[in-house]
Specification:
Helix content is 35%, strand content 33%. Strands 1-2-3-4 form a four-stranded antiparallel sheet, with helices on one face. The chain is globular, with a radius of gyration of 11 Å.
Length: 69
Amino acid sequence: MVSTTRDNGFGVEMLDDGAGWRVAIVDPAGAVVAERACRDQTEARTYASTVRQHIYWLSPERFRAYYRL
């Protein structure tokens, strides 16, 4: 599992559970609020990178709206 948290409180985790890769968005309280299955590690890294950029760039309100959280 690779985890990142930024100033707006949200985080992103890449998970390999043996059955495949998943990317989870974690809210400021630590709860998983969205999850996406990925074909492979490359897709998971790409998606997680995009989410990390949005965490960094967007306010918490804007981030919630963008990801429909």
